[in-house]
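Treating backbone geometry as a discrete language has practical consequences that deserve illustration. No coordinates are needed to read the tokens, only the vocabulary itself. For completeness, the protein is quoted in full, as a sequence line and a line of structure tokens:
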Amino acid sequence: MSYENTAMLVDESLCTGCNACTVVCKQLYKLPHGVFRTKINRLSFGAYPEVKDYFDKRACFHCTDAACVKACPTGACQKDENGLTMINSSLCITCNWCVNNCPFNAVQPDRANGTIEKCTLCSGRIKKDQEPFCAEACTTRAVKFGTRGEMLQLGKKRVSELKSQGYTNAYLYGDYELNGLKVLTVLTDEPEKYNLPRNPKIPISLQIWKGIPFKPLVLAAGGAALAFNALHTRKVKNLQNKNKQNKGGE
């Protein structure tokens, strides 16, 4: 399989919430406590006895039009040759702009190591013609891996099957969202039930920011202004305290 055309399909209708994907990913990548590259969320709707549960495997979707890449001021968050979104830790200043701007909450700060963590789709394994760890670990084959064309075909077929089984709101997420996602998801219900935005968009502020030349200089100037402001404030407070002391001694 060509590395340049790889994608993943997550079929939420087959997910049992066993967390095998979460555990194997966390162990093999030695992630610190509270930090995940992928995680299963259990979402419940309704009131007893009419409660409906949904399992949501949440990880980076590797958006074609990625907000995190546009938000990153240092170029640490970047696209590789396959269009996967990667973090270059040597350039990361942990400003958390990627964390705050991801519409899927799929990027996490790793404060213990001073960097950012997110799913890489196991790119190293892909280059060796191996499946990502989560796809290999999935006991129900809810996570599949192949070319994007194959995954789109499988996803659309599965949605049609689900609709014929009574899941009238079944939906393939990622076909068009943000100009296409590398991780496609079969949903049994509306995206909102999975806490997914139906029509995610890049904020206009980010689009403007991406077009600003010399961002590092802008950041440096902003940092210098903040430092100057802090020093100035401190100087004013010192003068005020000194004046109070002088008045008290009169």
